[in-house]
């Protein structure tokens, strides 16, 4: 009877009930859509980090990353065959790396020089796809170099321009080499575009005095889920090397994922506070309008628990109708925007790019967070109705009937 | 006769700390089962306040009220609600039916609060609607009923819990003459045939005429009490004229 009573009371004032349901639906939509945007942004950022920057896993000499000493190499003969046998690995890129100075006739800049294999890098970091001018490194032109758009603009150089790289070899001798720009690349991560340059690995190894070896092995896996298992397997096979996941190699991305999750939680809390006040206001109005009736129910013998649960039940019904509406609205809009994307380039392209994000966001429905958001919304609605319910049970029947 | 209500020296003052209004003062009242009693008096004489206290809706500042030997002034709020559910029926001046329920559901509500069985509820509802003559309006919502019909449903609701007595606050105040007469006929019949105790607060001469005991309140005090009377007596005619 109480449920039937609550249901009928919900429809007593249709427009007010529809407003509460819409508030719940819109509150849920806003919360889930914000979550969807963040999930989309973070997935896209993580994808970029894995597919174009640090790959899933990297193997280094344990001391290499401390000061990029060219002597700390990885023994290619030892690991190449073993890596080929690991099922979860899709592609491997071997890189030689050193820090150096890039000089042109107009100035100089500190850079990180990557010696790469063109074919393998094309798969592991999609480098070839990012070349906006010119072409990738030509195996026949040993002094070709790829530099980022940002660096090219800063150094006022263009395709075909000559430049000099200076760095130290494994004997600590200062070495200089002249290179000609064969391609200018552009990623969505401008800080990297300003710092990373790419030349042939054999060429860099010659300058550094290394043989057929490298400093970094970047590994792309078939599936993201195989990350931890593959790391464990590689660590067991190569205990003398450091094997790190993208989270460890790009801690700023991992931090950003955590921070953005916190931001989305804060935004959801703000939305829920607004929703709570809306529900308190409306349910209180509903109780105050029925003061006399509630007093009469109490006079007839409806106990406080039943009166309390009646008001709570009304809010619960309103929420139960609002929740699926909100989920449906979110699902429809996220389904649409996950295909067409939300282009925010007109007001924040540079800011997004400087943090390594694309300016087109493809939101994803936050299935993982759906339960927690639903619990928060339903919880907020029920908690919000406690005050009006308490108000109802505190009514003295004689006073209420006098009104 | 069995005593239903025994009120001792009850008083009620509103706004005791600002402008005190002594609504009821030192009232003693003793009602037996089967009485058909009218509480009369001018506006502000304390009829409704007294009725509320007898029904456990208001607590007296002083004195105590025994219903069937139970001192309701000492009951906790929850126990008092339960006591009202089981022992007291109410009929209000403005009907106070639940607008979202049908007439039948309004009556059923009380029995459902008492956790009666479905079959018992169905049978009792049918009987009650026959008694009030509204079998054909059972599934009608209050808004579609006339004032008189609504008040008859309110009487059925008050009777649904098989209470010890029914308190009716100005039950005919919002009714036309025909509806008021019909309602009084029903209540009088229930009183005579089923020995149900009725206590009314009223200004209505039609109710006073039908009452078998008239208690007059003035300024919160019992000014006169006829005791159980024969409605055809000279004494009753005097009251009617007053």
SSE sequence of chain A, one letter per element: HHEHHEEHEEHEEHEHEHEHHHHEHEHHH
- Give me the side-by-side strand order of the main sheet of chain B: 6-7-8-3-9-10
Envelope shape of chain B: globular
Q: What distance lies between the first and last C-alpha atoms of chain A, to the nearest angstrom? A: 26 Å
Distance between the termini of chain B: 29 Å
Number of DSSP-assigned strands of chain B? 10
* Residue runs with pLDDT of under 50 for 5 or more positions of chain A: none
Q: For the report, how would you describe the main beta sheet of chain B?
A: 6 strands, mixed
Content-based structural category of chain B? alpha/beta
* Main interface: chain pair and counts: A-B, 22 and 26 residues
Number of helices of chain A: 17
Globular, elongated, flat, extended or rod-shaped: what is the shape of chain A?
Answer: elongated
Portion of residues within helices of chain B: 25-40%
């Amino acid at each position: 009877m109480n449920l039937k009573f609550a249901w009928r009371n919900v429809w007593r004032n249709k427009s007010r009930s529809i407003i509460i349901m819409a508030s719940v639906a819109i509150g849920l939509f806003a919360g889930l859509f914000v979550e969807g945007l963040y999930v989309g942004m973070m997935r896209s950022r993580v994808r970029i980090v894995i597919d174009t920057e640090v790959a899933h896993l990297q193997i280094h000499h344990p001391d290499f990353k401390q000061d990029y000493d060219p002597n700390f190499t990885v023994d290619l003969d030892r690991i190449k065959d073993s890596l080929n046998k690991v099922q979860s690995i899709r592609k491997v890129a071997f890189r030689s790396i050193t820090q150096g100075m890039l000089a042109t006739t107009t100035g100089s800049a500190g850079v990180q020089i990557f010696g790469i294999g063109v074919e393998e890098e094309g798969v592991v970091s999609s480098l070839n796809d990012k070349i906006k001018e010119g072409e990738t490194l030509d195996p026949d032109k040993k002094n070709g170099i790829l530099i980022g758009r940002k660096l090219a603009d800063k150094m006022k150089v263009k395709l075909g321009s000559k430049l000099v790289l200076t760095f130290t070899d494994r004997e600590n001798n200062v070495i200089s080499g002249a290179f000609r720009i064969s391609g200018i690349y552009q990623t969505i991560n401008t800080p990297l575009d300003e710092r990373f340059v790419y030349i042939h690995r054999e060429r860099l190894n010659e300058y550094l005095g290394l043989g057929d070896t490298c400093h970094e092995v970047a590994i792309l896996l078939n599936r993201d889920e195989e990350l931890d298992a593959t790391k464990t397997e590689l660590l067991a096979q190569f205990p003398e090397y450091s094997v790190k996941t993208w989270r460890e190699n790009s801690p700023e991305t991992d931090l950003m994922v955590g921070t953005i999750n916190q931001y989305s939680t804060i935004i959801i809390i703000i939305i829920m506070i607004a929703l709570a006040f809306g529900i308190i206001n409306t349910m209180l109005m509903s109780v105050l309008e029925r003061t006399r009736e509630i007093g009469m129910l109490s006079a007839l013998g409806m106990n406080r628990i039943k009166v309390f649960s009646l008001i709570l039940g009304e809010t619960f019904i309103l929420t139960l109708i609002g929740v699926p509406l909100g989920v449906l609205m979110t699902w429809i809009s996220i389904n649409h925007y996950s295909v067409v994307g939300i282009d925010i380039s007109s007001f924040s392209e540079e800011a997004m790019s400087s943090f390594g994000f694309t300016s087109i966001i493809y939101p994803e429905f936050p299935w993982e967070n759906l339960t927690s958001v639903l619990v928060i919304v339903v919880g907020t609605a029920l908690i919000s109705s406690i005050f009006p319910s308490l108000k109802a049970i505190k009514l003295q029947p004689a006073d209420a009937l006098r009104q | 006769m069995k005593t239903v209500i025994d009120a001792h020296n009850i008083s009620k003052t509103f706004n005791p700390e600002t402008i005190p209004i002594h609504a009821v003062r030192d009232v003693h009242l003793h009602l037996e089962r089967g009485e058909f009693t009218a509480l009369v008096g001018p506006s502000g004489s304390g009829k409704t306040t007294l009725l509320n206290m007898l029904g456990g809706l208001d607590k007296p500042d002083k004195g105590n009220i025994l219903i069937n030997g139970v001192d309701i002034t000492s009951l906790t709020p929850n126990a008092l609600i339960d006591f009202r559910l089981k022992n007291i029926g109410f009929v209000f001046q403005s009907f106070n039916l639940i607008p979202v329920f049908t007439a039948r559901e309004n009556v059923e509500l009380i029995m459902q609060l008492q956790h009666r069985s479905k079959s018992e509820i169905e049978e009792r509802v049918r009987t009650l609607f026959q008694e009030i003559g509204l079998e054909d309006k059972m599934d009608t919502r209050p808004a579609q009923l006339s004032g008189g019909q609504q008040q008859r449903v309110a009487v059925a609701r008050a009777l649904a819990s098989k209470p010890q007595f029914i308190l009716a606050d100005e039950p005919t105040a919002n009714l036309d003459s025909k509806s008021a007469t019909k309602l009084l006929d029903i209540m009088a019949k229930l009183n005579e045939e089923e020995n149900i105790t009725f206590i009314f607060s009223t200004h209505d001469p039609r109710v006073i005429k039908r009452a078998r005991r008239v208690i007059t309140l003035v300024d919160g005090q019992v000014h006169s009490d006829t005791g159980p009377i024969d409605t055809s007596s000279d004494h009753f005619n005097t009251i009617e004229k007053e």
